[in-house]
Design goal:
Strand order of the largest sheet: 2-5-8-1-9
Shape: elongated
Number of strands: 9
Length: 494
Amino acid sequence: MKNKAPAKAPPVATPLILKASVSLLTKPLGLLGWDQLEPVLLAALATSEPLLLIGRHGTAKSFLLERLAQALGLSYRFYNASLVNYDDLVGIPVPNAQQTSLHYISTPTAIWDAEVVFIDELNRTRPDLQNKLFSIIHEKRVQGVRLEKLRYRWAAMNPPPTDDQEPGDIYLGAEPLDPALADRFGFLIAVPDWCDLSDSEKNGLLVDQFRGRHEFPVNVRALVARTTATFELLCAKPPDIAGYFVALESQLRGSGTRLSSRRLAMLFRTTLGIHAARMTLDLEAKEATRPPDWETTLFMAIAHGHPGLAAGPIDRATLLALHRQAWAIAGLMEGDPWKELLNIADPLERVAVASRAGFPLSEADLSSLVMEAVASQPGDELRAAVSLVLYLALRSGKTIAATAAETLASQLCRVLRPAVSTHEVYGQKLTCCREVANLCSALTDSPCDRYTRNLLQAFLPDGYANITPVLLRNTFVQLWARFGLDGSDLKAAA
């Protein structure tokens, strides 16, 4: 698709991983491979939004959070959610003299005076306790009582199992986090494992263990304070990026992902936190010659704020594509035809709209949409069906570039000029041939049915591995109607 640069800012090539130029919070502690996460970690400290670290055992999740709490000089409580009892959190309940209410006798592990709470193994929690932890994470309350001193709510979990995992890689008892609880975390960070490190990072990690205790090279409290001040300035006068989130929600919804209103508002807030963190880190690195770009900040916010991370890994390449689409939409002026097209998630519907008579789109742009629509279809049969409909819909009213025409032609040779050959078929292939024959016997001599017959027969005897003839026929008929092919100017198939 043609790259439409937003009017608000020059386009940048958003990386999947943003390498930090200086490491202040992770590498000095011996954590290698975490550099790209530092703006997100610093943003979590500056905004005080709940933070969830997701990673395998031995990836130093607990180590980092404990060292940050120490550096900030805050009272820290650690709870293993798979083992803790509710009394460990609140202390010993005792009725008052009138026997009308309870108060709690605090214990060394009680939560009441905590400034930082870290809940490990969050996705191994018993359902009854998870409901009680919910109010701590969401609203800093226990049994309705406000935790006045609590500033940070941090948690960690092992990755939940996925369908393609080997049995030895599955954490028994680890489940996808409840969606409502996941939605309360402003930051969800998948931390690097050994296999994610470069060879030099692996070598450095092995040797680093002999260096003794590591210290932060900066005053962490001062670093957080500077970032918080910048964050508050951005909140007081927020940048014009609301249109991006409107477009992003539409793109994600079109791909089957729903974001709540709470999550979208939180993403706006965490974006400002990440941008403030990037500005602070650039100043520390003495690289503040130009401000950090908003496009990269926005991708970092959604890549480390997508609640689906608590249910399993997400496809970052797909997320990046949706992000870039949303960024492009947000930068287009009202009335630009691309704004209407980019708001449509379905590539086929984009072509259907763009192919309408009078729609103001150049030959090159329409050609890009055509090739994207064909490429988006899974399997040769559906690509041929889409190519045939696009060829018939565009051949008289629209001009497309030679590359797009060649793309359609490569898919249509076997359909428009079906070969006549003899095959011996058995088993499933024989069943498929009989199904196609039955479908074709019911077709008429209308233009739609003639092309349908050619399409069905073009993939015998070796096709239909991923689609049935009936589904292919139904899809083609729906596409025929969708693109308004009434048959009045269509010639019969060869």
